[in-house]
Each structure stands twice: as C-alpha cells, then as structure tokens.
Amino acid sequence: MNNIIIACLLSFSLLMGQESTENQPLSEKEVVMVEQGILGEAIRANDYDTISTMALSFYATSMNSEFVGNGKRLYKRSIELLEICHKGAHITSSLYLVKTFLKPNPTYSRRIASESILLNESNNKIRYNPNYISLVMLYVSSVLDHTSTSRDEVNNAIEALQSLPEENAQTKFYSAFLFKSLGSEDIANMYLNDACHSSTVGSEIFKYCTTGERIEREDLLKNKVSNSDCNKDIGQRCK
How many CB atoms lie within 10 A of CB 72? Predict the structure, then answer.
C-alpha cells in the first residue's frame, strides 16, 4: 500500500519550486537589514507574499554551508515566518511547510495541512488553486501512510478530498483506501472500481488495478441492456 501511495503522491507536481542552497547566502548584516527593513514593514502590512519570499531566503541561507551566522536560529526564524503566512491563509506557504516536513515530521505536516484546509473552507476560489489541490493530496497521502492516525483524521481526509472541484482516478483511489480503513468495504470497492476504470494506461493506479487480486471488474455491457438475465454479448441487446 505505502509504495502505491508514495508513487501516486509523486505524480502531483508542487508548483512552489524547491529552494536552492547553492546560491550565495545572505550575510549576517543583510539578515539584520531585512529584518529591520522590508520584513518588518511586510509583517505590519500582512504582506504575505513578501514575508514568504524573505522566509524562503532565510531558509535557503540557513541551509548553506557558507553562511557564517547562526544557521539554526535563522532556520527557526524562517519557519516562524512561514507559519505567520500560513495562519493568514497563504496557501503557498502552507504547502511549503507541508511538503518540507512530510517525511521528517509527518504529524506536524498533517496539522499544517488540516489547518490550511479549515482556513480556506469558505473560499470557493481556492478549491481550484493547484497549490490547494496539491496540499490536499499530500495530506491524504500522509493520513494513508500512517496507520496510527485517528478515525477523525481519516474522516477529515475524506472531507478534504470531497472539497476538491472534481473527481479523478487519483482522488477515487485515495477515497477507496480511506473508506477501507474505516471498515466501509462496499464504498471502498465502489471507489476502487471507479478509479481502476478511469485510470490511464501505464499509470501507477492502472498497474495496481491490473495486478490486484481483489478488484471486481464491472460488466461494461450490463447497463446497456434492459434485462440483465439475457445474453449480453457484443451483437445482441435484450428488450
């Protein structure tokens, strides 16, 4: 299961690019100037785009071996700044935190994702934002990958999936395993069948479906006849 979930997870591209730790780091003096200048003004104005940009700059600098200042303190400050943006419903900052801590601290990552989903639940426009969709899928993947999560969190993951603007093979696939974890086998099988039939040939879901032993194949001709007891071959239809 985990290998399948991780493979599907990797198919979602995160629109917020990864930080580069190879660029020239900020100097200690520049960090102070940013804090006292543009960053201070941005925080007072709730300018989350600027705050997040400075946070990522601090983060990259803290990870750079050429930085001669206190890297741990600067790293902590970068996370604090991203959390400020997160609490202001800045979806790209929330997504960055979820992605960054998905493996080293999955509990924290899921908390950030869950909070972001709640913060944006009344924003119909955000449901179509690719960053929001990626955040939801990362959250659901983490819930599925950690069996210690509670039933409440599984239900939250189902609601998060249902908040997305449309269903596809991946959302149906994830829904199947979420409902399975709740013991709702019939609903799980329904979603799994739908996911298999709508999956793209060669995709990880398609590979899972073609090798899975418990997948029930739907008779695609059944719905095209009015009498299910008749001979449902290609050339005949019963009235």
Answer: 9
